[in-house]
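Section 3.1: Structural characterization of target chains.
Under the original work plan, the team committed to producing a structural model for every single-chain target entering the pipeline before any wet-lab resources were allocated. The record below documents one such target. The sequence was received from the expression subgroup and is listed exactly as submitted; it comprises 216 residues.
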Amino acid sequence: MTSMTPKRHQSPSQRGIALIESLIAIVITALGILGILGVQMRTLSDTSTTVRRAQAIRLIEDLGERMKVNPNALASINSYVTTFSSEPTVPAAGCASGCNQAAMVTYDLAVWKKSVKDTLPLGRAAIFIPPAGASTQLGVMLAWRENERDSSAGFKDEIDATKVRAADSSLSAGGGTDKTSNACPDGYICHLQYIPVAGRCPTDSNFPGQFFCAGT
């Protein structure tokens, strides 16, 4: 006689367990992938900010080099002062055939601000004379579009280069005397740097504090 093995019947509570386990595994895997993507996006954002700040430093160095070429940029220090909203037009004639001191300032400033606009996203620049009486220095502040997710006031204070940190770690506003022009605009990241202004022309002994440069 052939023995028949009775079929086992699953209880209703055991049905679909494999499907539930699969769904749980998919959810856990998806959460892990989202976590990795979040870390990658944050890393890319930090890298982008670092690159932009390095570009800002190079742009300020370029302005400093342009000032060194000027026969006496120190005598025209006030001509370099500009606000974020100012967009000078590059002179059509340029300086290929030669420029006097004033024309060179106009040309260099226009070309440099155009470079800032072309290099940084929504790039803007302001140049001011520091309020501390350092007449041989200029404060240069570059601003570009903000891409940080954290927009809290505390975070913005930490990344705001216009803030001055005291010995007790407290922060105070920096920049020039005109806070509207020299403070970091809302929605932007800024980099502030002070650069020396070269004065290569000899002083005039008959007029203390004045400079004499041929062609000025």
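The chain has a mean pLDDT of 75.
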